[in-house]
Structure prediction request, 327 residues.
Amino acid sequence: MKYSIAIVGNKEAILGFKALGLKAFNANSAEEATKVLYELKSEEIINEKTGESKPAYAIIFITEDLAMEISKDDYKKLSAAALPAIIPVPGPKGTTGYGIRRIGKMVEQAVGSDIFK
Amino acid sequence: MAKLNVKPTRMELLNLKRRVKSAVRGHKLLKDKQDGLMKTFMEIIQEAKGTRREIEASLGGAFKNFMQASSMMMPEMLESALLYPSAKVDLSVTTRNVMSCVVPYFKLEQEGDILNYGYLQTSGELDMALSAFQEVFPLMIKLAEIEKQAERLAAELETTRRRVNALEHKLIPDLKETVKFIQMKLAETERSTVVSVMRVKAMIEAQAAA
Prediction:
């Protein structure tokens, strides 16, 4: 089973990744990004032999500046299933610390408090 | 602690005792699951932190290169150079079961050349920027894998923790209290029966004596 990888972000952030063979999607605001993410998530490939359907994208990278603006409810819905993995990466403006904060949040969810603070 | 709303009968007592037994066993199993998940989660989260830091450092550099390259070229040229990439990435996904929580593993397959444009209108900096992206890319996949695993485990840990707590602090104490209540009530009824039998016996004896 083969999956694709996508990246969502503004133009200057995604152009370089497009050359690597990722599917690049342009989004300039959080609303646009949310819409794109929902579309990407619902995109499915149907296996002709077995008739099973699976998500087309296994990983969707999104630039941090967009990721941190996405509402909590949307984020929960988007990240609920096993695939795709929605991973924020630092954009051209450099890191915002969102990635590390996200890990802290996971620890909090799992343990009950952020023990690495 | 609130006792459950049941009638104090021997049958209920037997039922409740059975429920306490299965609740305690379930609690032990869930606790073990929680410990197992926590062990894996801690390993993964440490790794995730390290990888995340690495990415933040190296991806920043790659973007800087790319920005420099794009500033040296006309925007139209840059876009047309990168319009039809010949490189292709595929990802195969395998899963592993950690304490009944399915976590994904990614394996990257790349083919084709990333430098798929004429050299005439593009700058050498672009080549360098793209190969920098190429270098960071496997690390990004690694990060995606680890962070998704961490996310899945965190969600599973949360529900397990809640179940363990609900059993430990609510259901089991409630059941135990109700069992105790029924036992007391039954003992009380028994004593009261004995007393009334004794009284009846005394009355019969008094009548016989008279």
The mean pLDDT of chain B is 87.
